[in-house]
Amino acid sequence: xxxxxxxxPSTIADAIKALSAEGAQPLSGGQTLLPTMKQRLAAPDVLxxxxxxxxxxxxxxxxxxxxxxxxxxxxxVARDAARHYPALAALAGGIGDxxxxxxxxxxxxxxxxxxxxxxxxxxxxxxxxxVTSQRRIAADxxxxxxxxxxLEEGEFVTEVVFPIPxxxxxxxFNQPASRFxxxxxxxxxxxxxxxxxxxxxxxxxxxxxxxAEDALSADFSAGAIAGLTVAADDMIxxxxxxxxxxxxxxxxxxxxxxxxxx
Length: 262
Prior knowledge:
Blueprint: E1 5-7, H1 12-18, E2 24-27, H2 33-38, E3 46-49, E4 59-62, E5 65-69, H3 74-80, H4 86-93, H5 98-103, H6 106-112, H7 119-126, E6 129-132, E7 136-138, H8 139-142, E8 143-145, E9 148-149, E10 157-162, E11 167-174, E12 181-190, E13 193-199, E14 207-208, H9 210-218, H10 243-261
Parallel strand pairs: 1-3, 2-3
Antiparallel strand pairs: 4-5, 5-10, 6-7, 6-10, 8-9, 11-12, 12-13, 13-14
């Protein structure tokens, strides 16, 4: 690991100022960044910790739905979101192990946008709004490919606002060693239709399965997608599962998520 300076601001304004320094990088739970630094694959000159900013922590209901501060650990989301959004709380409670859940944060997860992370599917399926230090970004505009988001240099996530669906569920097939999603599907039913988001499967990162959305909006049952198929062309293929295997998992897990939501 290379030498670096460490700064821990207490306000968003101070964090914005600290991140204006050359070579500065935000640090949330550090579950991805710190191992990357240890391998010398990243070498920021300044780490700006966001975990000391109280206005970026906590879970509460407000305008537009459930507000979750970006520096809120997964374990807190699992505990405090359960009353308002059980499917989201269950997702948070299934991330990694207790050490990861008590250090990792929702903001860090969606800023990194790992193609196998769980939270991006919840954000996308819920049609959530990602609030940053500069603006508000709709989920459909935020995720832009594997490890790629709409965030600009020096911009960081401060909050995520989740509309509350009528019904929802998340089902994932775990990679047993990492507990990342080999494939995971989040289904959310709203009054105006159904949204289905898939993580862990595609080379392009999290995506919406629009054909399933159309079918489920007409008939919210697992049988509604029986005749659908998922193309394997853009799916991840590795030692854990082939592209065809992941494509099949998308359909199977979507059906299970719908059944769980019902």
